[in-house]
């Protein structure tokens, strides 16, 4: 029998078990979520701030042509999504998530700071019929720049013609010389030292991201015991931190880059990354017990060796980047085999691994799993392949769409102020923040009514929407002004459509993999999922290369040709994405049958 206090007997304080402070929550979730939310917010602030600048930095500061710049951007983002496979494994086996996150944050901060040292802007030059000429750049009172070929005492203005030829105009504005299509080549005289510094910075960010990206999410998962229904909501809150950080940085970093200089934009990204590191490093014990090292007392701690080995990845990635930049263009008519042979080393590694992994795992599943397990794995693999298509097109945001914003978009907001080209990427993050709760409520309501679309249908809708986004922008091109620029609202409309598409596919992808995979290979299937995103990033760079436009000193010579080129590419991929989305929806009953009730 247990004594119970009465009105006449003194009530003693309950000191039997839990300190009330230990039960403090943050919006009903473990209080540690607030720190991890803020850590991720600042890390994404740095990452997306740098991403908003990168393609413009390559084309305007180093004066790389579109093909080199977008190819390098695609290779960099491919490595960013590939390295978490290794970083996650090393954290699980040796480091623990917390040390991996801190190490990754330090490397990324160093990488962003290194990008601040870009040296002087490259000096443009042109090669005309095999002869090299200096190029001068002049800006008038309205800020309009004109490029001139310096031919002795002559200053010949450069004007691209609609047919691909280049006219060199004299002082009277009349053509003194017309250069045949393909006979005018532009480039920049850039410092090999500063190019090396820039590539090393990208290598450091790639390696650091591999340690940070998977392990901060792992720590969030550790906050919730098995079966805790708050887990999904907790990750939704955490996901909002990503988009708040990216929204702020994609406004502020390009602003500083425009007003102060490239170094200031990258420096702000580095400061954000340092803030992220400090929140984990100086946690005051608030994260004790989460993300700790798996090394048991008496076992050898291999952390220092792993840190040293990770740095070996920097020169390896450097070689991949230089090989990517120097790879020859595919020869027309060489066919698929010739195209694959012409791929740079990074392309061969990504495509080769993906093309071996997908059928290889399916063969293993057929031999070792039951009929049901094999069909579920087959459904997962089909969706993974379609996932490559989606992210290939969605990730034009950082390359071809940013260049489109720079060249063929009127960036004025109601005539009050103007955004920079890099700042236009903020639309995606802003729309995610606005529409994520609306979409979540809509799926919940549809599910309650038994009308929520299946996973394959959601994937198909996402593909159709990403196609509609490009078609919407092409339609807007019909209303371009005399300067061959469209209103910024057409580009914002594309990002709105793409954001809704992202919300149809991104939240369900990883969950789908865990539900459909055979338990013995779920980790491997997660690796294939991230590999598919990595392949998509690389292919996105190839697609952006198709939209390449001839430039001189970082500027196009004919805005009409530029607009026509982008419209042609966007029309093609818009139609292709819509058709592929319809195909997936048509296949969805079969795929759903293979899923055996997985929702």
From TrEMBL:
InterPro entries: Dipep/tripep_permease, MFS_trans_sf, MFS_Transporters, POT_fam, PTR2_symporter_CS
Principal subcellular localization: membrane
Signal peptide location: none
UniProt xrefs under Pfam families: PTR2
Topology term for the membrane: Multi-pass membrane protein
Lineage top rank: taxon: Bacteria
Record SUPFAM superfamilies: MFS general substrate transporter
Ranges that cross the membrane: 45-64, 70-91, 103-122, 193-212, 233-257, 263-282, 303-324, 336-364, 376-394, 455-475, 487-510, 522-548, 568-591
One example GO MF annotation: peptide transmembrane transporter activity
Keyword flag Repressor: no
Swiss-Prot/TrEMBL keywords: Cell membrane, Membrane, Peptide transport, Protein transport, Transmembrane, Transmembrane helix, Transport
Keyword check for Nucleotidyltransferase: no
One of the GO biological process terms: oligopeptide transport
Compartmental location: Cell membrane
CDD domains linked: MFS_DtpA_like
Any one of the GO CC terms: plasma membrane
Cited NCBIfam families: yjdL_sub1_fam
The name this protein goes by in its record: POT family proton-dependent oligopeptide transporter
Source organism of the structure: Sphingomonas endophytica
């Amino acid at each position: 029998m247990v004594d119970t206090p009465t009105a006449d007997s003194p009530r003693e304080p309950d000191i039997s078990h839990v300190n009330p402070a230990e039960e403090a929550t943050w919006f009903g979730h473990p209080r540690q979520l607030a720190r991890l939310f803020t850590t991720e917010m600042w890390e994404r602030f740095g990452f997306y701030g740098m991403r908003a600048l990168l393609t413009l930095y390559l084309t305007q500061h180093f004066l790389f042509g579109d093909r080199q710049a977008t190819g390098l951007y695609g290779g960099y983002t491919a490595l960013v999504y590939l390295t978490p496979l290794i970083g996650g494994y090393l954290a699980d086996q040796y480091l623990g998530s917390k040390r991996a996150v801190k190490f990754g944050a330090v490397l990324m901060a160093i990488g962003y700071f290194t990008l601040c040292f870009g040296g002087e802007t490259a000096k443009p030059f042109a090669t005309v019929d095999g002869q090299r000429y200096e190029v001068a750049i002049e800006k008038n009172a309205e800020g309009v720049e004109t490029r001139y070929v310096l031919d002795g005492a002559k200053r010949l203005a450069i004007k691209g013609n609609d047919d691909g030829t280049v006219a060199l105009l004299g002082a009277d504005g009349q053509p003194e010389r017309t250069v045949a299509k393909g006979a005018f080549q532009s480039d920049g005289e850039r410092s090999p030292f500063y190019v090396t510094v820039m590539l090393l910075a990208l290598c450091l960010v790639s390696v650091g991201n591999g340690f940070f990206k998977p392990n901060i999410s792992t720590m969030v998962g550790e906050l919730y015991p098995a079966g805790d229904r708050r887990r999904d909501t907790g990750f939704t809150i955490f996901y909002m931190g990503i988009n708040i950080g990216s929204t702020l940085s994609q406004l502020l970093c390009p602003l500083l880059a425009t007003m102060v200089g490239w170094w200031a934009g990258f420096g702000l990204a580095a400061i954000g990354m340092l803030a992220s590191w400090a929140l984990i490093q100086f946690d005051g014990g608030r994260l004790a017990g989460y993300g700790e090292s798996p090394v048991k007392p008496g076992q050898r701690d291999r952390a220092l060796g792993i840190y040293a080995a990770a740095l070996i990845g920097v020169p390896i990635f450097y070689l991949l980047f230089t090989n990517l930049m120097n790879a020859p263009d595919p020869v027309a008519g060489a066919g698929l085999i010739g195209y694959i042979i012409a791929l740079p080393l990074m392309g061969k590694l990504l495509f080769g691994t993906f093309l071996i992994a997908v059928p290889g795992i399916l063969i293993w599943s057929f031999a070792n799993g039951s009929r049901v397990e094999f069909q579920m794995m087959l459904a997962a693999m089909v969706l993974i392949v379609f996932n490559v298509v989606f992210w290939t097109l969605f990730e034009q945001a950082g390359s071809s769409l940013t260049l489109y914003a720079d060249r063929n978009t009127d960036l004025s907001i109601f005539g009050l102020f103007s955004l920079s080209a890099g700042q236009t990427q903020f639309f995606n993050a802003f729309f995610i923040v606005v529409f994520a709760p609306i979409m979540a409520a809509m799926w919940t309501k549809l599910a309650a009514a038994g009308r929520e679309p299946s996973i394959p249908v959601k994937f198909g809708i996402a593909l159709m929407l990403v196609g509609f986004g490009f078609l919407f922008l092409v339609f807007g091109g019909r209303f371009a002004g005399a300067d061959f620029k469209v209103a910024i609202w057409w580009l914002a409309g594309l990002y709105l459509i793409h954001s809704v598409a992202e919300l149809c596919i991104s939240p369900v992808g990883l969950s789908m993999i865990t539900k459909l995979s055979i338990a013995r290979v779920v980790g491997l299937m997660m690796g294939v999922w991230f590999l598919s995103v990595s392949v998509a990033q690389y292919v996105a760079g190839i697609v952006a290369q198709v939209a390449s436009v001839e430039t001189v000193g970082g500027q196009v010579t004919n805005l009409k040709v530029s607009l026509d080129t982008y419209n042609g590419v966007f029309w093609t991929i818009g139609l292709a994405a819509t058709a592929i989305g319809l195909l997936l929806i048509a296949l969805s009953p079969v795929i759903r049958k293979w899923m055996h009730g997985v929702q």
